[in-house]
Amino acid sequence: xxxxxxxxxxxxxxxxxxxxxxxxxxxxxxxxxxxxxxxxxxxxxxxxxxxxxxxxxxxxxxxxxxxxxxxxxxxxxxxxxxxxxxxxxxxxxxxxxxxxxxxxxxxxxxxxxxxxxxxxxxxxxxxxxxxxxxxxxxxxxxxxxxxxxxxxxxxxxxxxxxxxxxxxxxxxxxxxxxxxxxxxxxxxxxxxxxxxxxxxxxxxxxxxxxxxxxxxxxxxxxxxxxxxxxxxxxxxxxxxxxxxxxxxxxxxxxxxxxxxxxxxxxxxxxxxxxxxxxxxxxxxxxxxxxxxxxxxxxxxxxxxxxxxxxxxxxxxxxxxxxxxxxxxxxxxxxxxxxxxxxxxxxxxxxxxxxxxxxxxxxxxxxxxxxxxxxxxxxxxxxxxxxxxxxxxxxxxxxxxxxxxxxxxxxxxxxxxxxxxxxxxxx
Length: 426
Ligand code: ASP
What we know:
Elements: H1 3-14, E1 22-24, H2 26-32, E2 38-44, H3 46-50, E3 58-61, H4 64-74, E4 80-85, H5 88-100, E5 104-108, H6 111-118, E6 122-133, H7 142-164, H8 169-182, E7 202-208, E8 214-220, H9 226-236, E9 241-243, H10 244-253, H11 267-274, E10 286-291, E11 297-303, E12 324-326, E13 331-337, H12 339-344, H13 347-358, H14 362-373, E14 381-387, E15 392-396, E16 400-409, E17 416-420
Helix pairs in contact: 7-8, 8-9, 13-14
Bound molecules: aspartic acid (ASP).
């Protein structure tokens, strides 16, 4: 044992009982936890918990009393423990609680810096959504839920395969979104929702964080996969956003697959049409954000828009900074929800700005925007995001959001993946 470790351990032992826990810097902490008799505890929020574990630490979900209960069950009384987590405040609260229970506690009060030292580095991360809404009941219908879980899993696997085969973020985002656009379960491409005239008008956007390049199409009627047209606008034109007939004509000239507007009809659409008078609210959108193996961020969103929207209406999805945004200095974001509010609150850019300029964690920034700035009355919906370090946010203020994530930790071969509809992730 090095002199520093021995000295620290001495301090540590001296700190037990009534003297209060020790708070140390990252370097000291790293030395101290080499001692195998110290239990390393990673204090997590339920959301972080669902996103994976730190392998060599005891991962404890921090929910006040539950934290101490879980802890007492897992760690013998009188043990020496070292705690750390993403927020310095939370690790201090945990240290205090454990100290009160009689444990010898070493606290790493480094907040986000410490977290970054200890968490896994991720080779790549994919986060998707298939729309938010009051859909929690879908979870209870096991057959219906299984169909959505399977579709979300497939979308994630398509993204993972693309990245494993050497594709970069934009190609992988398009592969994932093409699958979701072609799947009538979701409100994008085939299966899109309808205008009050009974036609289909689609919006999509793709943005790259490495150079803030973006392309989008709005109100298009004949492009089978609008996300591909958005990418063509980004790479083959001088523009960012093309709308209506001009966008359709551009896509055709680019050789993209063109279909009749009736292609987008699905059995679901017919059901909606039958329910038109019932003021049913069938919305949704699909989105995908990726941190790729080069460390670049990409965001993509594709949608049929709001159910019974007036023809000509354009939502947040194709508006850079409203429904879609990516910046390598912060995060990639794709939104779903009541687009008018998402445009007014510049939700996607707002998230990136809170992260970048206020120094909030991705989770803090996403929670603030979705639950405080927007809420289920003004701006029902959600967002998915991944930051430049591979942290994930999947926040919503509706009862559910079809969503999922998949990531691969550096130095491993397997992937970690979860999907969800309501609160629970599977
Ligand atoms: N955000 C989309 C729009 O307003 C719809 C949705 O995601 O539900 O066009």
